[in-house]
Design a protein that fits this description.
This protein is α/β, with parallel strands linked by helices. 48% of the residues lie in helices and 14% in strands. The chain contains 15 helices and twelve strands. The strands form two sheets. It has an eight-stranded parallel barrel with strand order 2-3-4-5-6-7-8-9, surrounded by seven helices. A two-stranded parallel ribbon has the order 11-12. Helix 4 links the parallel strand 4 and strand 5. This is Homocitrate synthase. Its EC number is 2.3.3.14. Keywords: Acyltransferase, Transferase.
Length: 387
């Protein structure tokens, strides 16, 4: 059990879909060994369930899924399927213990994508669920485009899934058009009407995937879908590291996940996906604990809590005092102490002026060797003046 709400003791389960929805990012392909490695990293973090791929694709996809299953990980291993029995047969052949059965639920999808009716959707979903349950699988029913579906139809859809033996309903904000206030209202309504486990699956088209995922959990959802670094189709999904740290630090939930490995996992997925991990990325980016501005650097030196919400080692990072255009004297003095040099006030003033001028000229912060050179230049200029 990954997360526990301390106010009511309710458990929240984390479902990572980096290896399925994350790999559906345009242009991203994981090698088979990379898929296995990512699954093992996520298992080591303590993630409850891993959605690892789409068996009906066959070939390398099935081979990778079978390799992951053979690792006998603690995490539940889920495969994604259409509401088609042949898809489920492929998942059974891979040996997974859980399946996601996905079907469109919005009228726009039913009319323009499936070209059928609401009744057809429920009928085929129920057949697929019953078929999977007869094989002893855990079943998540995915309501594709649920955020644009009629709420009362969703209630009927969920009740039908429940009666067919499904274990939970995945609420998909497929095109990322929800906001946290609306999604809270909708999930609360569905939770109260159906009393069924709901999973949040949110996309980031308007930059609110994490906020929407969290809002859904606050409204009553007990599962939350995520990907490492927010990888996913178009603008991506709710980021695993952001969602978990929000629960841990903003809501003070009991989180049984090894967050110290977040940076390691993020870097590996970044390299494997060929997607750069931005320096400004929340939680795991290089700039999370980098301080340059004079006031901020001074405050961080005196007490890191002045400008840091949590310690860097919590997510596998280190604090950095960056020297550049916006640095102040305190940062200069502190940096040179690292070199075993105690600067006088006059020296720190003089070197600071050189640092700022050099930083503007180079359009970046300075490296340690450059700082040492500036110190030597400063001392030589003083000698020249005396002579």
């Amino acid at each position: 059990m990954t997360i526990r709400k301390l106010d009511n003791g309710k458990h929240i389960y984390v479902v990572d879909t980096t290896l399925r929805d994350g790999e559906q990012t345009a242009g991203v392909v994981f090698a088979n060994d990379e898929k296995v490695a990512i699954a093992e990293l996520l298992n080591d973090l303590g993630i409850d369930q891993l959605e690892v791929g789409i068996p009906t694709m066959g070939g390398d996809e099935k081979e990778a899924i079978k390799k992951i299953v053979k690792r006998n990980l603690k995490s539940s291993i889920m495969a994604w399927n259409r509401a088609v029995t042949s898809d489920i047969d492929q998942s059974i052949d891979c040996g997974v213990d859980a399946v996601a059965i996905s079907i469109s639920v919005s009228d726009i999808h039913i009319k323009h994508k499936l070209k059928t009716s609401r009744e057809w959707v429920i009928e085929n979903m129920c057949k697929a669920v019953e078929y999977a349950k007869r094989s002893g699988l855990y079943v998540s029913v995915n309501g594709e485009d649920a955020s644009r579906a009629d709420r009362d139809f969703l209630v009927k859809f969920i009740e039908s899934a429940k009666n067919s033996g499904a274990d939970r309903f995945r609420y998909c904000d497929t095109v990322g058009i929800m906001d946290p206030f609306k999604i809270y209202t909708d999930i609360k309504y569905l939770d109260e009407k159906t009393n069924f486990d709901i999973e949040m699956h949110t996309h980031n088209d308007f930059g609110m995937a994490t906020a929407n995922a969290v809002a859904g959990v606050k409204a009553g959802a007990s599962y939350v879908g995520v990907t490492v670094n927010g990888l996913g189709e178009r603008a991506g999904n709710a980021a695993l590291e952001e969602v978990i740290m929000t629960f841990k630090y903003l809501f003070n939930y009991d989180v049984d996940i090894d967050t110290k490995k977040f940076r390691e996992v993020s870097e590996y997925v970044s390299r494997a996906s060929g997607r750069v991990l931005p320096a400004w990325k929340a939680i795991v980016g290089d700039n999370m604990f980098a301080h340059e501005s004079g006031i901020h650097a001074d405050g961080a030196i005196k007490n890191p809590k002045n400008y840091e919400a949590f310690d860097p080692d919590v997510v596998g990072l280190e604090r950095q005092i960056v020297i550049g255009k916006h640095s102040g004297k305190a940062a200069i003095i502190n940096k040179f102490k690292e070199y075993g040099m105690d600067l006088t006030q006059d020296e720190s003033d003089g070197i600071l002026n050189l640092v700022r001028a050099t930083s503007v000229r180079l359009k970046r912060s300075l490296f340690d060797k450059e700082l040492v050179k500036l110190y030597k230049d400063y001392k030589e200029s003083l000698k020249a003046r005396v002579n």
